[in-house]
Design goal:
Helix content is 63%, strand content 0%.
Length: 298
């Protein structure tokens, strides 16, 4: 809760449950020493997202196991591909309706809600329904259930604010500083740039949070269940995709530079990618390269 409060000052809304405790403690230590800056916070989330060993496992290790996520994995994978190519406008425009689709599917199939009226008011309250389903799985005396309720209230509070104050906020009430708003983006109501890596990560963090809740509601493990072959295949493919796309950045920037909405930062930002081969012994590198050849033929 303390970390979320601090992050909101830098326009980052919440810590999702798959961010490690030592990382959260690092943010709080920086804050206590008055050393926390917007640059540090942004870099924290970018580096966490570009940890390919983690990010690339979400679709196959988590999302595919949820009945509410699985139908949308094609769109999520496409958005991830676009993001790693730094085509943020397309990546974001895919991910926003995907989040809405996941929540809508849950509300209609599991909660039997009619979304034809007051659709977004109900979607904004989807976490309330999720919390109730999670609490239904809590067994024991009343005081234990109450402690569990506080636990989930704490976790969900920040994402509820993000839904109500940003993503699904009415455009009549939206704060001028909000970049990620479903209605404004879908209908081009405001001509201001929203296509940034940071905004994409904000949306991907929603998926990382929601899958933690959905897997519990569905009675499934919240741990990663990706198999080694799938992990290695995607690791090799995404690493190759990122390297190839980096060569196109100067051309993309040149094509878009004359537009007022163009953000040169999207093409100039230095992003460090750790190769799967980095730091490995010769024997391990050789084994990985052999696996790579048989998995993707390169």
């Amino acid at each position: 809760m303390e970390a979320n409060s601090v992050l909101r000052k830098f326009n980052w809304h919440f810590i999702h449950p798959y961010i490690q405790v030592y990382q959260v403690e690092g943010i709080l230590r920086k804050h206590e020493r008055n050393e926390l800056t917007a640059e540090y916070v942004n870099a924290f989330f970018v580096e966490n997202f570009y940890n390919l060993d983690s990010t690339l496992t979400f679709i196959d290790g988590f999302f595919k196991r949820s009945v509410y996520f699985e139908p949308f994995n094609y769109f999520i994978e496409n958005s991830l591909i676009l993001c790693f190519q730094r085509d943020y406008i397309g990546a974001i425009n895919i991910l926003i309706p995907t989040i809405e689709g996941i929540l809508s599917g849950y509300l209609t199939s599991a909660e039997n809600l009619d979304l034809n009226r007051n659709r977004y008011q109900k979607i904004k309250k989807s976490s309330t329904y999720l919390k109730e389903r999670l609490l239904e799985k809590t067994e024991g005396p009343a005081d234990l259930v109450e402690q569990e309720r506080k636990y989930y209230d704490d976790w969900f509070e920040a994402i509820e604010k993000f839904f109500s104050e940003s993503l699904f906020c009415s455009t009549n009430d939206i704060d001028p500083g909000v970049d990620v708003n479903r209605h404004a983006i879908a209908h081009s109501l405001t001509l201001k740039p929203y296509d940034t890596l940071d905004n994409y990560i904000r949306l991907f963090n929603i998926l990382s949070f929601l899958i933690w809740a959905f897997l519990q509601v569905e009675g499934k493990s919240v741990l990663n269940h990706i198999d080694t072959e799938t992990f290695l295949r995607k690791r090799f493919l995404y690493e190759d995709l990122i390297k190839r796309s980096e060569r196109l950045l100067s051309g993309k920037k040149e094509l878009l530079k004359d537009y007022p909405l163009c953000q040169p930062m999207n093409f100039e930002r230095t992003i460090k990618i750790k190769s799967i081969l980095d730091g490995q012994s010769f024997k391990v590198k050789l084994g990985l390269l052999i696996r790579k050849y048989f998995l993707i033929g390169k």
